[in-house]
Amino acid sequence: MSSAPSRSRAVARLTSAALVRTVLGEVSPGDVVIIDGRSGAGKSTLARELQRQWDGAQPPQLIALDELYPGWDGLAAGAEYAVARVLAPRRTGAPARWQQWDWGTDRYGPDRALKGDESIILEGSGALTAAAAAFATVRIWLDAPSDVRKRRALDRDGDTYRPHWERWAAQEQDHIARNDPRRLATHVVELV
């Protein structure tokens, strides 16, 4: 598994189906795929479709950072938690163990676990950092125009997300400035 960033920085304009076909040709059992991008870029949709079409007896475990962020100010903390509790144990083949964030009670809730050799799709804003990239075979940065992203996100989450849009966008911008996920990606894609 190579953690070297892609040499090409060209933005590919692909359909979700074409990107899924490309990624499926690059993965093997036990691999990790990371999908990052700003809110509304299409990360969750792509992750679900990739999981659905994954070959093999056992599809990969889909872990959304939405389950790990400790609240509306937790983008960076959720990404660090994913590396420490989900990805790092894989170095020794140990099982990953983490708690899922309960947005309703504003605290960590149920425990989750998965075997150390299972394939994983980790998706969410902030997921692609240098620490996380070291564990992933495929690293995707998704992009879309800001007006499209905002419309998608607010259509999806409506009034729950609306008051937090700017605050979350500022954390995404900080992540981009600190981690340069686009540079770490093996695929930089604007979905059409």
TrEMBL record:
SUPFAM superfamilies: P-loop containing nucleoside triphosphate hydrolases (SSF52540). InterPro entries: P-loop_NTPase (IPR027417). NCBIfam families: PRK06547.1 (NF005115). This is ATP-binding protein. It comes from Microbacterium plantarum.
